[in-house]
Specification:
OB fold (Dihydrolipoamide Acetyltransferase, E2P), DNA-directed RNA polymerase II subunit RPB7, Dna Ligase, domain 1, single-stranded RNA binding, transcription, DNA-directed RNA polymerase, S1_domain
């Protein structure tokens, strides 16, 4: 895995329960379909979001549960996952702005650039819901914002991150790819 890759392949394991009525000549396909449905789009280990199941590496032998008659299978698979990493620089889209800071989105991650992580020359303008500077630069909803991730934590079925735009080459990016 590359040191600062946001997307990477990760070996994973999951135990699945299969109902007796699902056992039959197409058991392997049933297990594969159920695995895809249950894990894709969910949070995995280490604060990663499972984008897709790349391949199923091994389906263990099923064990019948005495109480239910269901079969339990341990599946080893490789998942394509998304996880921003601390100190990584990413381009995001501004979803909203409040007096507390700038809310951005990248994939399933919601990112907050707190007001203390915005350069001092920018101030919050309540009527327009923007951060603007004394020299006319403005950050508003819909802008592309280059941020540096400072922290990550799980949040429901997604993840939440904090970020800064105080370092060099961070902040709003114009449509021509230049910083404003």
């Amino acid at each position: 895995r590359e040191q600062l890759a946001m997307f990477f392949l990760l070996p994973m394991t999951k135990t699945m329960i299969i109902q007796p009525k699902e056992c039959g000549p197409h058991l392997r396909q049933t297990i594969e379909n159920k695995l895809h449905r249950e894990v894709q789009g969910t949070m995995g280990v280490n604060f990663c979001h499972i984008v897709a199941v790349k391949n199923i590496d091994k389906i263990g032998k099923g064990k019948i549960q005495d109480e239910t008659g269901c079969a339990s299978f341990t599946i080893k698979y490789t998942a394509f996952v998304f996880r921003p990493i601390k100190n990584q620089v990413v381009d995001t889209i501004v979803n909203g702005i409040t007096g507390d800071g700038i809310f951005c989105q990248i994939g399933p991650a919601e990112i907050l650039v707190g007001k203390e992580s915005v350069p001092e020359e920018f101030t919050f303008d309540e009527p327009t819901k923007t951060f603007s500077s004394h020299n006319g630069y403005r950050i508003q909803k819909g802008d592309i914002l280059r941020v540096k991730i400072e922290g990550i934590s799980p949040s429901g079925i997604g993840m939440f991150a904090t970020a800064t735009i105080k370092d060099d080459f961070l902040g709003a990016i114009g449509m021509d790819g230049k910083w404003i």
